[in-house]
C-alpha cells in the first residue's frame, strides 16, 4: 500500500511557506534541502519541515494540498501551530 504526504515547508525565519504533496517524504525533503529541484523552494530557500499529514489515498492527498493552497496564511499558521506551536524542524537527519 502506498503512502502519500501533504507537507508544509517554511524558511528559517518562518516568513515564506510552501505546500507540497509526495509519495516519499524523506526523498522529497532531501531534494528540497539540497536544492536539487528548480523552482520556488530553491529560489526562496524554503527547506524547514513544520507540518505533514500522511494518507494512503492519493486523491485525498492532492485534494488536501489544494485545500491548503487555497487557505490564507493565517489559517495555515493555525494548522502548523496546532501540532507544532514552536515551528521547530520536524525532519532531523534522515528521520521524521
From TrEMBL:
CDD domains: GIY-YIG_unchar_3. InterPro entries: GIY-YIG_endonuc (IPR000305), GIY-YIG_endonuc_sf (IPR035901), UPF0213_domain (IPR050190). PROSITE patterns: GIY_YIG. Pfam families: GIY-YIG (PF01541). It comes from the Bacteria. Residues 2-78 form the GIY-YIG domain. PANTHER family: BSL5627 PROTEIN (PTHR34477:SF5), UPF0213 PROTEIN YHBQ (PTHR34477). Belongs to the UPF0213 family. This is GIY-YIG nuclease family protein. It comes from Thiomicrorhabdus marina. The lineage of its organism: Bacteria, Pseudomonadati, Pseudomonadota, Gammaproteobacteria, Thiotrichales.
Amino acid at each position: 500500500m502506498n503512502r502519500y504526504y501533504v507537507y508544509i515547508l517554511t524558511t528559517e525565519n518562518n516568513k515564506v511557506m510552501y505546500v507540497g504533496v509526495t509519495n516519499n517524504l524523506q526523498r522529497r525533503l532531501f531534494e528540497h534541502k539540497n536544492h536539487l529541484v528548480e523552482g520556488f523552494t530553491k529560489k526562496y530557500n524554503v527547506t524547514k519541515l513544520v507540518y505533514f499529514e500522511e494518507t494512503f489515498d492519493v486523491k485525498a492527498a492532492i485534494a488536501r494540498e489544494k485545500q491548503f493552497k487555497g487557505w490564507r496564511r493565517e489559517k495555515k499558521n493555525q494548522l502548523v501551530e496546532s501540532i507544532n506551536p514552536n515551528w521547530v524542524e520536524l525532519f532531523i537527519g534522515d528521520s521524521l
